[in-house]
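Researcher: Final request for today, and then I'll write up notes for the group meeting. The sequence and the SMILES for flavin-adenine dinucleotide follow.
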Amino acid sequence: MHEREALGVKVSTVPTLEVTALERDLATAVGQRNCITDPSGLSTYECDGLTGTRIRPRAVVLPETTEQVAAAVRVARAHGMAVVPRGAGTGLSGGALPVDGCLLVVLSRMTKILTVDLENRRMRVQPGVINLDVTKMIAPHGYYYAPDPSSQSVCTIGGNIAENSGGAHCLKYGFTVNHVVAATVVLADGSVVEIGANAVDPLGYDLIAAVVGSEGMVGIVTEAVVRILRVPELTRTFFATFPSTDEAGACVSAIVSAGIVPAAVEMIDSLAIEAIVKSTGVDWPLDVGAALLMDVDGTKAEVEHTAAAAVEIARNAGAIEIRTPKDAAERLLMWKGRKGAFAAMGRISPNYYVQDGVIPRSQISKVLREIASAGATQGLRVANVFHAGDGNLHPLVLYDARVPGEAHRAEIVAGEILSICLRAGGSITGEHGVGTDKAKYMGKMFTDDDLESMNFVRCTFDPQRAFNPGKVFPTPRLCGDIPGHFHAHPTELAGTAARG
Amino acid sequence: MTTATIRGIAATTTHAPSTLDEAQALLVAAAAAQQTVAFVGGSTELGFGYAPTRVDVLIDTTKLDRVIEYQPADMVVEVEAGVTLAALQAHLAPHGQRLALDAPDPKRATIGGLVSTNAFGPLRARFGSMRDLIVGVSFIRADGARVRGGGKVVKNVAGFDLPKLAVGSLGSLAMIATVTLRLHPLAQAALGVDATLSADDIAKVVRESFRVQLEPAMLVASRQDSGDYRLTAVFEGFDSGAREQRERFLELGRTFDASIRANDDAVAHVAARDYGARCAGDVRVRIAMPPAEFARAERDVVGPLVRAFADVVNDGAEPSQTIAYPSLGIVFVAGTLRHDASADRANIASGRVADAIVAARRAAEVRGGNLVVTHCDDAVVSERVDVYGTLPPSFALMRGLKDRFDPEHRLNPGRFLGKL
Ligand SMILES: Cc1cc2nc3c(=O)[nH]c(=O)nc-3n(C[C@H](O)[C@H](O)[C@H](O)COP(=O)(O)OP(=O)(O)OC[C@H]3O[C@@H](n4cnc5c(N)ncnc54)[C@H](O)[C@@H]3O)c2cc1C
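Model: Predicted protein-flavin-adenine dinucleotide complex:
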């Protein structure tokens, strides 16, 4: 049965007349040129980066202003439609996957950088601004925006906020939630609210933390104030190869226990190296078990000390070869290799399934072995390229969808990987989000009461559950008027309410 | 056991559970009996917030003082809420690690209390506040349910961010039972510099140090009677790195103050001054403004307030202490009102200070900031000056959160923003 029936709104087959009324209302809200309702136009938006599942939205709008977003949300409400926000659609967990009959609000036309305040180290931007464009804008002044997802040249700030995105350099500098200080949010009733503040420590509860990482379930961010940082004086990069992931993992632990906080430490295993070499042409050796790509940054003398110490530690940990880039161009190439890793997988496998589990750093070697054997049990290979410094794995389960049963077996391995991470005391997702993809695993990490508490946050913002219903939560969650200790809603017991 | 009153409101009963199960039983019983519940840790910030409307049950967390899990290799620790900051640091130091948070009064301040007030100290310049260090939390909710959010790994986006909701919530959403924190290595060296500068020059030095890519771990300035500030910068890191940064800062500062000098005891001095301006005095405020406004803040906000305190004390006693975190835009002012004069004169004095706080708050709010009265023992000031000032536009959402987590408003009732 349908989510929207739980909302008391009945929709299933859509008569043509009603579509016309909807089209007219949406055109009034955002302008005709910002509406898409024809099937071929809609098909572009059937999925996000999780391409395996496709659902056609009922309509798509691409608003250009906060007022247009609010107007579109009001139209959706009047027509009893769920609303799914979308940025660039690069999300890997189905966060921007349409839900049946929804209005998809695409923020990619809201690309204005509104203010740049170097003195207070703040920028106010619209949500459709591409992550890397924030840094490009201020780079000439020696500033940058720290969160750096590998998809940074295409993903949007709005999507980053919704997913609390991270990146290689978040090890030292923190995640999106540490770099957003204020936001304008359109709520489900079409009202617009300002949260947070330019100054530190705004009064009251931390609503920024409620919105960042909310996966599009509390509202639509239409403006955000982000912190920007001064570029460090010096960055030293090195690339070290090891006989296996065991030595590479031990090297990471040794560096950290020496009191060094690297800006980034990425691990790349032999399969991933092979794919990257084939697709980008970097001259990394193919006969090694693993490599580490590492940055240390900061002031000059400090970095020189830590870089030398880290190289020494890598050598003692059994590094086969240690390379340092001879110039900025070579450094960039090394990072390009790392950031292009997912895209490179096509060179070694027709399909892959990426996981995003997190484990305590000290268990990297052990967990990687368990993952390899989970793959072997199903006759599949698993490549690894990940944020080793904070234990955020990205196992890529390689499979061929043309071989009957392989996709299914890949999913089994992916599920087993999450169980391995949880057994190690970790998390099912470090940066890609839960979305639709991992909702069913949330119950393995959290109890019903935990999830109910999270649902309090969601229901505070969106009591009608109009935004992105069906994501994140594994079982039906309604928004009771008087929340008390958890009682199953009658519709849930009857099995009529969908998860949401 | 610690004090059994909060801002003059006496608790009917006080309990100091020594296990989380006992604490849970207390909350379950209070829920059944419809009793109000408040929490107290080290009693260092009890003056913060409005007086609670009623306290049937006061839960003292100081016996919940276990370190639950500490894996040095993962640089994460999980503790019960009543562990003091000093006890935690002592536990971590042998492994060369620390919680990079130097809030005042570490021997008394508990981790639960530090979370509920989003605490910080001078190291915030480099490492942020409690908000930036917390990775997991467990609550005991108003209905007695034990729940968890976040986890014990530093990176985790599974579900809504309950740990950060706990931060700054002042015990109004749920009891904070356990906290998981991200750790940092102890610095090999921490080297300081002292200079005396006008507020204008402080702003310039701060800007310049950013421009030349210095990375101070601390940057604090205490106000002198003259209106100048004594700026202390501390550089942390490995020996050679800290030393190089200090040399460069000395050079940079010399253009502004020829008497600028190295101070090897800077960390201890900073802690003492931080304590003085934040934990002493009977009226204390915290002002937040965009950092670039620092020079103007001195002129329009801090200066007038400090003079109001000075005007009411005539015998040379130190009327107030001020410490600023100029790179962050935070200023603390703590003052003492001497009430040995006649009641009338005392009232007039308090009234003047109250007016000055209200004016300072207006100036801070106009610039996008706020002024919070973090402690007030003066009846006149309490009556005339609100704790928080103008409610934020998102207050309805905050009320919604309170209604969902604590639908009967039994936890710390009336204490939080908007008297939630
Ligand atoms: C090759 C590749 C590499 C990647 N590497 C990383 C990485 O290193 N680190 C990382 O964290 N992620 C990574 N990702 C995942 C993805 O890029 C991020 O999750 C990104 O933040 C998504 O941004 P987007 O604009 O594409 O958002 P979308 O995919 O369009 O949407 C993501 C979520 O945000 C919501 N949303 C979008 N805009 C708004 C808004 N304005 N208001 C409210 N909700 C909104 C959507 O509803 C959805 O739930 C990678 C993806 C790919 C394809």
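Model: Chain A has 18 helices and 18 strands. Residues 85 and 105 of chain A are 5 Å apart (CA to CA).
Researcher: Thanks, that's everything.
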